[in-house]
Amino acid sequence: xxxxxxxxxxxxxxxxxxxxxxxxxxxxxxxxxxxxxxxxxxxxxxxxxxxxxxxxxxxxxxxxxxxxxxxxxxxxxxxxxxxxxxxxxxxxxxxxxxxxxxxxxxxxxx
Length: 110
Hints:
It contains six helices and no strands. It is an all-alpha fold.
């Protein structure tokens, strides 16, 4: 009986939602809530925009505490918002880029 219930539970998700869910770099919040939110908004944009914009937003936030739940992000249609990266985050990215360049130049001479 447990296997049948589990099987039914897994079947509530559509293939298009499962594809989106699997492409998220981090799955924040309830998959079930996200599915119902996705069903409400999927006609307003494309799956690729949803995945790209949500993953990009997460990549700009260093602290997972500030990552929105996927269902909330969908409900608020946040794929339409312009994401502004903070100055501190840009500095950290530039520092990493500089270290990579320095390491590359050093390895090139060895």
